[in-house]
Amino acid sequence: MHRLALILLLACAGADAQTYRWTDPAGRTVISDAPPPSTAKNLSASTPAEPGAGMSYAARRAMENFPVTLYTAPNCQSECSQARDLLKQRGVPHTEKSLQNEADLAELKALSGDASVPVLKVGRQHFRGYAAAPWHDLLDLAGYPKSAAGGSRP
Questions:
Q1: Per-residue pLDDT of the chain (154 residues; tens, 9 = 90+)
Q2: What is the secondary structure of 19-82 as a DSSP string?
Q3: Domain edges within the chain
Q4: CATH superfamily of 54-154
Q5: Model pTM greater than 0.90?
């Protein structure tokens, strides 16, 4: 009986996971599931919604068949911010992978042949560096909506 209660408790704890985003004292944006230190600025917290909630069938299908990963680094400011904004404007669910260690760097080099960021990976395709038109093309081909509201792309 105690084991069942523990399993239920752990399952409920994971359901309320929050994601925190803040700026550290050096001006870098940090995204983490751990609460920020007291020195954090521009703090925002969110509880993730069910994947695909409120999305069209086409968008859910794109998400399942062509998952999107954005590779960034703590020292990437302007281009990575533009990249995030493009994905947000289009309403594209994605995973952001910030290069934090040698294993992350090796993964990016294996994917793109280089260590420069940002890199957008859509399904098996990728594009190195931020350029709006090619990024839009990759997302269009995968079937992602043109904007978060479903209109034409910006």
A1: 444 443 444 444 444 456 777 677 777 777 777 777 877 777 766 655 555 566 778 888 888 999 999 999 999 999 999 999 999 999 899 999 999 999 999 999 999 999 999 999 999 999 999 999 999 999 999 999 887 654 444 4
A2: EEEEE-TTS-EEEESSPPPTT-EEEEEEPPPPTTTT--HHHHHHHHHS-EEEEE-TT--HHHHH
A3: 17-48, 54-154
A4: Glutaredoxin (3.40.30.10)
A5: no
